[in-house]
Amino acid sequence: MTLDNIIEEIDKAKNIVILTHEMPDGDAIGSSLALYTGLKQLGKDVDVVIPEYSKTFEFLPNSSKIQKEGRTETYDLAIALDSGDIKRLNGFAKYFEDANTKISIDHHSSNTMFADYNFVNPTAPACAQILVIVLEALGVIIDKEIGTCLLTGIITDTGGFKYKGVTAETFEFVAELLNRGVNVSDVYKKVLQTISKTRFELTRIALNRLEFFEDGKLTFTYITKEDEQKVGAGNNDHDGIVEMGRDIEGVEVSIFLRETDNGYKISLRSNEYVNVSDICLMFSGGGHIRAAGGNINLPFEQAKTKIIEECKKHLK
Ligand code: 5GP
Ligand code: MN
Asked: Looking at the domain 197-312, which fold is it?
């Protein structure tokens, strides 16, 4: 069984690198720091390598241990978290590819099974929830620090416990975290409720541009690099924009494009029936059924038309 192999490999490894996806969200960072802290508790020599992340997550225990680079020597073991494919590893796939053994722990339905051992459960609402099983099997004590990191992952990826993937175990685990002294309301406020001024300004720009198509079943908006410069946007300040289109009554698919150095990053969300992960697979991306992303390297008008046309095909 994969879990047994994973425990065995972690037991054997002396040095371990933890990696996650680019533009890390709360699940990516929370899972990485929970695993880091857990492996430290077991006395392992661990690096957690994340080149850039949002200030929102600086409050997380051990965030000061995050490194921008890994070491030059080969790691015994590399563990990728919350990443559906190897291309997503922050440009740090080299640490993963070079490691003697490779493990992936993830919950994306589009996961390409790129590791030696893939512990992937697409029904889990967050990678952090899968990690609870791994940490417990390792004999790690889920203390307040680890609990805060895991909770951050669960809260962000479930949109504050509201998405369909939430299970009874989610609430049982959170109840247990409350017993262990984790401040659930404080974490909720920090990761979901409070937004930076720059994020607010970026959202305002995107919302002013939002357009409806197909009798209001499709929304489209975007931001450019110039917009980001204008408001002084930081990492992840675009978070939440795509959900705003999705949450308008009657909308099935929300499209958000963000200008990058190579065209546009696509974010898609759906409400009831469109499998946006399938759509994103056509744009060298993937994700979950109701939340997915990809990339498109075309001039703006062509990119816009192409993604809208593709989404239209899936609407009833
Ligand atoms: P977001 O729209 O928030 O950037 O991403 C939504 C979901 O799709 C996340 O679970 C994210 O991991 C996944 N995703 C976003 N971009 C990509 C991509 O380029 N490739 C893959 N495989 N998944 C992506
Ligand atoms: Mn996730």
From this structure: Diaminopimelate Epimerase; Chain A, domain 1 (3.10.310)
Domain ranges of the chain: 2-193, 197-312
Distance 22 CA to ligand 1 centre (A): 9
- On the question of pLDDT at 229 being above 90, the answer is yes
Closest CA to 81 of 157, 36, 20: 20
Decide which of 3.40.50.970, 3.30.420.40, 3.90.1640.10, 3.20.20.120 is the CATH code for 2-193. Answer: 3.90.1640.10
- The verdict on the CB of residue 269 being under 6 Å from ligand 1 is no
164-169 long-range CB contacts below 8 Å, 24 or more apart? Answer: 164/290, 165/123, 165/124, 165/125, 165/126, 166/125, 167/125, 167/129, 169/129
**Mean pLDDT, residues 109-119 taken together:** 97
**286 bridge partner residues:** 293
What's the rounded mean pLDDT across residues 275-292? 96
Tens-digit pLDDT profile for residues 160-178:
999 988 999 999 999 999 9
Instruction: Report pLDDT digits (tens) over 122-150.
Output: 999 999 999 999 999 999 999 999 999 99
Say yes or no: CB of residue 85 within 6 Å of ligand 1. Answer: yes
Q: Kindly give the number of the ligand 1 atom that is closest to the alpha carbon of 85.
A: 22
Q: Kindly report the number of other CB atoms within 10 A of residue 67's CB atom.
A: 13
Residue 288 Cβ contacting ligand 1 at under 6 Å: yes
294 lines ligand 1 (CB under 6 A): yes
